[in-house]
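Support case: user asked for a sample of complex input and structure output to validate their parser. Sending the pair below.
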Amino acid sequence: MIDEGRGATEDTSQTQDSGEFARRAAELDAADPLASYLEEFVPVDEPGFVAYLDGNSLGRPTRRAAAELGELVRGAWGTDLIRSWTDGADPWMEWPERVGDEIAAACLGAAAGQTVVADSTTVLLYKLARAALTARPGRDEIVLDTDNFPTDRYVLEGIAGECGMSLRWIDADPREGVHAEQVAAAVGDRTALVVLSHVAYRSGWIADLPAIAAVSHGAGALFLADLCHSVGAVPVELDAWGVDLAVGCTYKFLGGGPGAPAFGYICRDLQDQVRQPIQGWMGRADPFTMGPGYQPAAGIRSLVSGTPPIVGMVPVRAGVGLVARAGIDAIRCKSIELTTLAIDIVDSWPDALGVRVSSPRDAARRGGHVTISRGDFRQVNAALWQRGVIPDFRAPDGIRLGLAPLSTSYADVVRALDVARTVMTRGAGAP
Amino acid sequence: MIDEGRGATEDTSQTQDSGEFARRAAELDAADPLASYLEEFVPVDEPGFVAYLDGNSLGRPTRRAAAELGELVRGAWGTDLIRSWTDGADPWMEWPERVGDEIAAACLGAAAGQTVVADSTTVLLYKLARAALTARPGRDEIVLDTDNFPTDRYVLEGIAGECGMSLRWIDADPREGVHAEQVAAAVGDRTALVVLSHVAYRSGWIADLPAIAAVSHGAGALFLADLCHSVGAVPVELDAWGVDLAVGCTYKFLGGGPGAPAFGYICRDLQDQVRQPIQGWMGRADPFTMGPGYQPAAGIRSLVSGTPPIVGMVPVRAGVGLVARAGIDAIRCKSIELTTLAIDIVDSWPDALGVRVSSPRDAARRGGHVTISRGDFRQVNAALWQRGVIPDFRAPDGIRLGLAPLSTSYADVVRALDVARTVMTRGAGAP
């Protein structure tokens, strides 16, 4: 049931509203200081394509990523071959720290020497959480929230089981997220570690990381932030906020490509106190001596385990380079305008459509995506995909509009939501 | 000291010998049923380049990898975007098992449903070894060897520490490797797991995996094989040999590219008995329900933790496709001819050069690379790199000649070893 029994007849207000929003979008696009970045992305090559609204899940590829993958295959891999690991100005051996530092400088507010790129988000989260526990012996509780991204919950459940820890769950409001007061009520002298997301994957709620870090530290616990849904869209100040450890993904707003390697951060003061469990040759001091006995490399390098995923890092560097050039503050400004426009359009829809905004209305607490909800949105999302509008669906009833500032125009938002309104008005099954 | 004080004067035998070997190489190349595969690789674009002899460390890129990376960026990533995870004939969500099965069919001797591609070799080894221990509760010993690849040793040291296990070391002869008799003497009723390499990373020794699996099972232990230095060069029959778990890398003879994701195998009968520790959303049953509580996916999928590294898997598929087409038995035949030629050339060198063959002379026990040794080979290797001959150096005194059958001609071997002989005769520092 698409329209909840009301408003299934022709909706004459639509043309008028869209015209108004189209004019507003045109003005915003004309004045957009980041408009030129739209040309930096590989164009979508599909007849009838309307707009991509899922940059919060899989960012679009940059033209530079395409070019640099080709250059890698012909040059560093195909010609320099094994020498590329150790020789030249940009040896692959150093990429974990180099690309980590590039991300840190572009959008983490972190000084160099605290971030590496390696593994998947899940594996890095496992390593970081396990590492954190080694710095809090005698404490047996991990604090997390019921609406954290699934892999975070699953990883921590596994760690709790194997390390004899208890999980203490904060009951998060799925339309918002976790408040610092809830963390304050949850932590205590048994708490070893607090693990929460910066931006909630469903609602887009921005948690107050400095306050949560302070509250965690007040109880003697460490704080690990999941930045997957904020990095590259929302400014982060890891050093200033006192975040102890962080993990994030590079395939959303950083454009690293499907399954691109993740980044991990351990603040400098903590690096000597923690030990991650997957002792690999690439995190060892002097790896090419290949000698007996594991001795962790100095600093953040010890977070690395296996051979750095160079091919996977090429698009990451290209995407991070764009973010650095555009500037995270300018990106955030456009992000707020984009999500505000989306909410205004949804608010203009007749009540009969039955669509709710399930994201914070306060722009200061809202990240780079807006979730709207309706009971049949699984089917509506499928219908939108058929019509060249590509958001994503998140159970039970949410469509996420992920508005990546560098690759999304204001006109995209208007066109896409016009199609969405039409689909809902006519029924998802209509042609 | 390059020549150990003898034979530093002009070596008149060289021209004559090389002529003989050049003729033999020309005959072998002319009759090589795999010769056409040389054209499948991206050409080295460097003036003065002579030959690449490090396919055992980083395989050369295939032309198909280059083309398919470009197609991915324009098509599945750039145009189909997020839909590629779930839609179409080849959804990314299924790539871990699909590419795993492709590797299994091409060169592991493993039926479908037992292999996935994910993570780095190091991380997968960690997960597999931890998983194996869950199936042998009450046993507290892991058997490994002193000359196993460093990351294997470091990972197992870490696991022993965190799981309260003891390590029992087999003292491997670095010019050969581990014999089944040594394993028989090491295992007992405390042994939970035996972890050994199929082909030794230094000597190239082929361990007798069926015998080692049988000996391990005789003691009630599980056997985990590291296939990094054999897969794609030496036939493997995991199912027939009774190997319980295996891990291997795809960036050597499979051409997956620097840091490409690894593969892991768990034999079907064991899959329900083991549990790997990194519980991620991509290894959960019904991942997109994103519900509470981790429930492992059925079968080998539960070995997956994070988002599959699609960009990194594209060159893997291309490389594995070549291996499948060429056939692992034909590859092995050429591999034996290549390493035999290399040994014959080194054997023809004057004793005064002081070069030793540190690999098995029995071709049946020798993998895809030959290690030769001399005290100053670190410097000689550097001099070879300067002259367009690219093997690799392994401490303390070995140069590995890695002869990837699909991308190496017999003439390559002759030309490269001519340069090596010249360098050693004149001194590594000579122009």
